[in-house]
Amino acid sequence: MLSKTAAKRFFVVGTALCFGAFFLLTLDTLARIPAQTNQETMTDAVVRGKHLWDTSNCMGCHTLLGEGAYYAPELTKAYSRRGPDFIAAMLRDPEAMYPGQRRMQNYDFDEGQIEDLVAFLEWVGRMDLNGFPAEPDLGEVSVPVTSTDSSVARRSDRPQVFNQMCIACHALGGQGGAVGPALDGVGGRLDADYIKRWLTDPFAIKPNSLMPKLPLSDATIVELVAFLSQLKD
Q1: 211, CA 20 to 30 Å: which among 8, 23, 102, 118?
Q2: What is the per-residue pLDDT across 85-110, written as a single tens digit (0 to 9) for each?
Q3: Rounded CA gap, 215 and 90, in Å?
């Protein structure tokens, strides 16, 4: 059994060692921050976007870097998951993206503010966060391409815009959103011309369409038409 003097010495030395360890770990963490956050790429737009994020109280609904609320989606990897076009469209008019589904407030951001917020989310998404947040364990999804061909279109083979934007509302191979119809076999139901016209302007075909007119370039539409047209039962 320790004497009072020995116990006091043990406590003081132990406390000093623990304090020293935490101090050194803190210094190591601070030294790593510039490289892990890509501090050198922090542009004026990123700073303005961070200011907008704070003043608009985005963390009142969203989580970023593990902090915030859980009412709305986590946004640390939103840029790589959804892409700049989808993010900009959501910020421009949330209700148009998910008619009757979304409760996100329209902050009436101007185009400059939208670009700043997109730049901020892009910068955050490129941080080295030691694997946080973990990638969802979705696995590879195989989708029949033709009724006679055994080849498959895996997630990694799909157009990037499909994985970022289309899958947010539509399902394919059992994965994706449920706002719009599943796209399995869509190429067997609709011809390429109809798909192209629909992607260009859904309201020109169906005035009460729930699908918004997405900010898709001509090249992106051509790529999506080619991909969707080959999805047959």
Answers
A1: 118
A2: 999 999 999 888 877 776 788 999 99
A3: 11
